[in-house]
Amino acid sequence: MSYVLPHLHYGWQVDQAILSEEDRVVVIRFGHDWDPTCMKMDEVLYSIAEKKCCFKVKHFAVIYLVDITEVPDFNKMYELYDPCTVMFFFRNKHIMIDLGTGNNNKINWAMEDKQEMVGIIETVYRGAAAWSKYLKIMYLLRY
């Protein structure tokens, strides 16, 4: 299902996707379309991204795919050494997540449960949005 989800083919496109989205979480799957692990993850991402999905992920997240061979610009920066990596960004900031694996930067395995993936994305969105509001209030109180 990777052919259905939007692909970013250049480093500039990845940067613009992260920079330009103000209200939603940017979910980026780094990997290869032909990799079996990525295929499983892409199936889950497609199923939650499609318009008739009951979870309504499109209201708080946008999902992109990036081929790490075609766009090697981020391999070193984000340590993209695994066959499949999912990362989250909100308002131009990388969102760290703690799933009990020790690696708080990304998901580097294929998730097979749609509801679990929706729960993670929703939690990232709620946490990032709440933190953003908190920072804005602290800034206003300070000045």
From TrEMBL:
GO terms for cellular component: spliceosomal complex; U4/U6 x U5 tri-snRNP complex; U5 snRNP. PANTHER family: THIOREDOXIN-LIKE PROTEIN 4A (PTHR12052:SF5), THIOREDOXIN-LIKE PROTEN 4A, 4B (PTHR12052). Plays a role in pre-mRNA splicing as component of the U5 snRNP and U4/U6-U5 tri-snRNP complexes that are involved in spliceosome assembly, and as component of the precatalytic spliceosome (spliceosome B complex). SMART domains: DIM1. Keywords: mRNA processing, mRNA splicing, Nucleus. Belongs to the DIM1 family. GO terms for biological process: mRNA splicing, via spliceosome. It is found in: Nucleus. The lineage of its organism: Eukaryota, Metazoa, Chordata, Craniata, Vertebrata. InterPro entries: Dim1, Thioredoxin-like_sf. Its main location: nucleus. This is Thioredoxin-like protein. The keyword Nucleus applies. Disulfide bonds join C38-C84. Component of the precatalytic spliceosome (spliceosome B complex). Component of the U5 snRNP complex. Component of the U4/U6-U5 tri-snRNP complex. The U4/U6-U5 tri-snRNP complex is a building block of the precatalytic spliceosome (spliceosome B complex). The U4/U6-U5 tri-snRNP complex is composed of the U4, U6 and U5 snRNAs and at least PRPF3, PRPF4, PRPF6, PRPF8, PRPF31, SNRNP200, TXNL4A, SNRNP40, SNRPB, SNRPD1, SNRPD2, SNRPD3, SNRPE, SNRPF, SNRPG, DDX23, CD2BP2, PPIH, SNU13, EFTUD2, SART1 and USP39, plus LSM2, LSM3, LSM4, LSM5, LSM6, LSM7 and LSM8. Directly interacts with CD2BP2. The keyword ATP-binding does not apply.
